[in-house]
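I am still getting used to backbone structure tokens and would like to learn alongside you. To get us started, please write out a protein record for me. Once you have written the record down, we can walk along the chain together.
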Amino acid sequence: MPNQDLPILVVDDAKFSSMVVSRTLRAAGYSDVRVVNNAPAALEQIEQRAVSVLIADWLMPEMDGLELTDRVRQQDELTNHYTYVILLTARESVDALAEAFDRGVDDFIYKSDMSKQLIPRVFAADRTAERQNTLLRTNSLLVQNIRVLESANIIDLETGLCNLRYAREHLGKSLRQAESRGGASAYVLCGIRNWQELQRKHPPSVMAELAVGIARRLNHLIRPMDVLCRVGENQFAIVAYFPNSEQCSTTAFRRIFDGINHKALKTSVGYVSVEAGMVLCRSDAQQGTPSVSDAERAALKGLMDAYETRRFTEVVPDVVAEA
């Protein structure tokens, strides 16, 4: 049984020929059959409403079947649609047919045998077009779902830690908590100073082992209530809140600095030592509450200084007074 709703467009400058094709299609049960007499009109019809099967004469004035196929393929790309193109032809040259296939034509019907070939070829076109358009729609939905998941993703897939998105969200909460309850918010940025040097020595698989090893060690060293995130390829951040602002100092995180720098990490190529730089960005509510971006900016600048001095440093972010 034909798909009666299959949208078909017939294009032929010879009115008698287009009438024969359309009548044959309707007699076979197809109800959505449109007929035009030139290629420009066909393109207008397709722009208004897409078709699944295009049946066009090869030789037409203004624009022949091959040029029409080129334009239809361009339109398909814009609309994420697939149009099955069948050309009506009296040409049986192998070279001509090969050129047409290269231009994107799907099938041919020889005019001398059209009465026998038309309906079976349209049956086949229906199945192919439906399958292709179903795949295109499915792929489009998958792409949209992936974008939604990526926009909501808070996990670093390599280490299993929370990522930069979550670090910013939690830092904002920590800053607001310090502002409303007193105390201090800590944003500790830990960067692996020799990461690029290690990348030149080891393959990506070993670097992935190092990233996971660093994440596990940091997880063991932080307090249970602190949040650990991977915020860059070689950067990790700890977000913490201290009810007593005096306790928010480098001393509270010294064990982390020592634990990363003084003990090598085991990998498949042996033990590898990393050189970590660390900075504590401290925000005390009594001195004003910075924005998340101000805290990040101050921490990154402090990390560059920590790389040069090889010391665990402390910075205070600038607070912009509200107008």
